[in-house]
Design goal:
0% strand, disordered C terminus, mainly alpha, 252 residues, 11 helices
Length: 252
């Protein structure tokens, strides 16, 4: 599953990079400029904890618009339609409430799990991996989105866990690459630092498409199984329509 998911996501990323880049830049360049200004003139470049907390705050309250927009781009392509900048931004803005509330409930559940015994928190982190994709693609939110993510990850825990590890590793590597110039060149201009941070945002966008591809893969697998469980064996034509447009994804 992992290789096919990353390959499918890379195909989406290359095909629609122009629209993806536009969404990321419009949302994240102003946020990066704000974060960089505060890092240089308010907190100080060495206060990594304060800068990290502020970046997380920006992601939770504003960056989710870009996340929803990128998910929309990939999902629109999956539906054999042509994603546009305006349409993606519109979906990102309209999905804001669903994304924020679902993320809030999910993070609260994971936090409680970590406080209890750590392991329950990790378990929930994996089982709730697809809440954002569900919120955007299926337009459900809150507990309903969390329940849907549980359905998709049923009997797929370790595959999703490994996928998340790889995506997180990519994000950490991108973050290190962004921080290195600041460490090596202490006098770097804050505007240049903000522009460099876009590199990490582009990597995160690819990670978002990886999770979308996994969501589509697992949805296809589950829906096909449900069709097969019907008394008539399901409609062959309906099952055929579940194949992802960018190429079939393996779920073995």
């Amino acid at each position: 599953m992992i290789a096919s998911v990353f390959g499918h996501a890379w195909g989406l990323y290359r095909k629609h990079f122009g629209v993806i880049a536009a969404v990321v830049i419009v949302i994240w360049l102003p946020l990066n400029l704000l974060a960089s200004y505060r890092a240089y003139f308010v907190y100080g470049p060495d206060d990594f904890e304060a800068n990290f907390r502020f970046s997380q705050w920006l992601q939770k309250f504003v960056g989710i618009i870009a996340t929803a927009g990128v998910i929309s781009i990939g999902y629109t392509s999956h539906l054999s339609q042509h994603p546009t900048f305006g349409g993606s931004m519109n979906v990102g803005i309209n999905s804001y409430g669903r994304m924020w509330w679902t993320n809030f409930l999910t993070q609260l559940a994971i936090l409680l799990g970590v406080i209890l015994l750590v392991i329950p928190g990790i378990y929930l982190l994996v089982r709730l991996a697809f809440i954002e994709q569900v919120a955007v693609c299926e337009r459900v939110y809150g507990v309903a989105a969390m329940r849907r993510s549980f359905e998709l990850t049923e009997r797929r825990f370790w595959q999703v866990f490994l996928l998340q590890l790889v995506v997180m590793a990519m994000g950490v590597a991108a973050g290190v690459c962004v921080c290195l110039p600041t460490v090596l060149i202490p006098q770097m201009d804050w505007v240049v630092d903000a522009a460099i941070s876009l590199f990490a945002d582009f990597v995160f966008a690819y990670g978002t498409l990886c999770m979308l591809s996994a969501y589509l893969c697992l949805s296809q697998n589950r829906d096909t199984a449900e069709l097969a469980d019907e008394p008539t064996g399901g409609s062959a034509a309906a099952a055929a329509n579940l194949v992802i447009e960018e190429g079939p994804l393996s779920v073995s």
